[in-house]
Design goal:
Keywords: Transferase. InterPro entries: Glyco_trans_2-like, Nucleotide-diphossugar_trans. It is built from 15 helices and 24 strands. It is α+β, with helices and mostly antiparallel strands. Strands 1, 2, 3, 4, 5, 6, 7, 8 and 9 form a nine-stranded mixed sheet that branches. Strands 14, 15, 16, 19, 20, 22, 23 and 24 form an eight-stranded antiparallel sheet that branches. The longest helix is centred in the C-terminal third of the chain and has 22 residues. It starts with 8 loop residues before the first strand and ends with a helix.
């Protein structure tokens, strides 16, 4: 069956004040070929020229239909619902105005839907970090290409995929079940719509093709809702969306309802916790809001979550206000997770959070070594080396027998890590292990250039620990002492190589390298941009 014989698709594009980007989104939908019978662009009463851009495109492309709303809805749900109402194709596909559909997306989705008679078809999606164009797969491993899921309750982990844009929906299925988005100023409307779809128990087919490119512009003047987490109102909106979704799923299937609760504890909660920041007013408001919501969770759902999520929940429940060591909690929520010292024990010798909050860290003795939230400190040891100290964790790492450690430099723009040579670890008197790990920044800069990293290079710095029993653990480094001092190094290749170690928002060591004058200028621009962003956030 060629594309001209496939059932037709209506692509619904929603836009609000996005005149500079909506044209690319619409063009990517029109470029899908004859399988897309119409592109319905819904302008949510924009004030920046978006309507004019869409009307000009519609005058050139008969398949483009423009719906002009006279009042802004305040959210994404209402314009999507308008698009569904205007659609005439057999299938409906959603697209946001700042994203794109990759070539062949609609064709791949329809072929899979028809092959398996599936009312819902899902494909691969990526978050593309711009301007670096670094692609991060969305929910890798959740779906198996070619799979057909007869009922969502058979795969409760599907509740973790809350996107609506990486899926094709049969319009008759949406109509039969009255499936629509929440109207008006409802943030995270995807959560609710997706829960309603899963509650309707459709057959779901899976294609391995890339069907959606989600553009992430962290430096944009107005960041997307999912990235705008500096206001506690965003967290309140996410909680309300999750609460609505969980109730919808629980009413249809207790299994799906429970899976939705566990997903919140393992995914949403750590994501916001690790960005808690240092503002005491924000911390207090966030803490109160979160504790109130966690008090509504059944203990069985807490028990079903992974160990780290259980510990976080129980610390939150144990105190009405953020504790003095709240930073330890944010570091435990990071990726990879790290439990910072000190390590306290309870009356029976069991591992607990702290002497002040003796919350048991249940399940820690049974965690695989690779899942241990190990902390590794790093401090300078001369111009070309760092001294690390690997902390033990209630004897768990000692039991595995740490032998060697080696640095790993991972490009923040994506790609394979650059590995240094392994160095033997030496036990110290404090019950941990130390080593001096050498590295050559000039060689790292050359490797970055060969991989296409021009001007300023940004690297995450991690460490892998290999143990005598064959196990290993990988984590980030906690910078200590004077490690974060900026340095200018002479370079025969570049003239000068600027090195700026820094601490990420998660408290981990990262590195900016600026080879030559061009790289140094880029580094200065980067610092100025971050300074302006910090002033804007304040």
């Amino acid at each position: 069956m060629n594309s001209s014989n496939l059932p037709t698709v209506s692509v619904v594009v929603i836009a609000y004040n996005d005149a500079g980007l909506v044209g690319e989104a619409v063009s990517s939908a029109l470029a899908q070929g004859p399988v897309v019978t119409e592109v319905i662009a819904v302008d949510d009463a924009s004030s920046d020229g978006t309507a004019r851009v869409l009307d000009e495109l519609a005058s050139l492309h008969p398949r483009l239909k423009v719906v002009h709303r006279t009042e802004n809805s305040g959210g994404c749900g209402t314009p999507r619902n308008d698009g569904i109402a205007a659609a005439s194709g057999r299938y409906v596909l959603f697209l946001d105005s700042d994203d794109i559909l990759p070539p062949g997306a609609a064709d791949a989705l329809v072929r899979t839907a028809e092959r398996h008679s599936a009312p819902v078809t899902v494909g691969a999606a990526v978050r593309r970090e711009l301007p670096q164009r670094h692609d991060v797969p969305w929910m890798p491993g959740l779906y198996t290409p070619g799979d057909v899921i007869e009922r969502p309750a058979d795969r409760p982990e599907l509740v973790r995929d809350t996107l609506c844009v990486n899926k094709l929906y049969e319009r008759a299925f949406l109509q039969e079940h009255g499936l629509r988005f929440p109207d008006g100023r409802f943030v995270y409307e995807d959560f609710v719509f997706t829960s309603r779809v899963l509650a309707a128990a459709p057959r779901i087919a899976v294609t391995g093709d890339l069907v959606y490119v989600w553009h992430v512009r962290r430096s944009a003047a107005q960041v997307s809702i999912s990235l705008d987490r500096k206001d506690v109102g965003n967290w309140r909106s996410r909680i309300e969306a999750h609460r609505t979704a969980a109730r919808t799923l629980a009413a249809a299937s207790p299994v799906l309802g429970s899976a939705c609760q566990v997903k919140f504890l393992e995914y949403d909660l750590p994501m916001y916790l690790r960005e808690l920041g240092r503002d005491p007013d924000y911390q207090a408001a966030w803490w109160t809001l979160t504790r109130e919501y966690l008090d509504t969770f059944a203990e069985a759902d807490v028990e079903a979550a992974e160990a780290r999520a259980r510990w976080i929940v129980r610390v939150l429940r144990a105190t009405a206000t953020p504790p003095a060591d709240v930073e330890r909690l944010t570091r435990l929520a990071a990726q990879p997770p790290r439990l910072l010292p000190p390590y306290a024990v309870g009356a029976a010798g069991e591992p607990v959070w702290s002497e002040e909050l003796p919350v048991e860290l249940d399940g820690l003795p049974a965690l695989p070594v690779e899942d241990l939230p190990v902390t590794v400190d790093a401090e300078p040891a001369g111009r070309g080396a760092v001294r690390i100290r690997v902390h033990d964790l209630y004897g768990r790492l000692a039991g595995a027998g740490p032998q060697t450690a080696r640095l790993s430099f991972m490009p923040r723009a994506g790609g394979e890590p650059v590995l240094a040579r392994p160095v033997e670890l030496v036990p110290d008197q404090g019950g941990g292990w130390t080593a001096v790990l050498p590295f050559r920044l000039a060689d790292l800069a050359v490797t970055g250039r060969r991989r296409g990293l021009r001007r300023m290079q940004a690297w995450n710095v991690g460490v892998g620990v290999q143990c005598a029993d064959g196990s290993s653990v990988f984590t980030s480094l906690r910078p200590r002492g004077r490690l974060l001092r900026r340095r200018a190094l002479p370079s025969s290749r570049y003239g000068v190589l600027l090195a700026q170690p820094y601490r990420t928002g998660a408290g981990a060591l990262a590195l900016r390298l600026a080879p030559g004058a061009e790289g140094a200028l880029d580094l200065v621009r980067n610092r100025l941009h971050r300074a302006r962003a910090a002033r804007g956030a304040g």
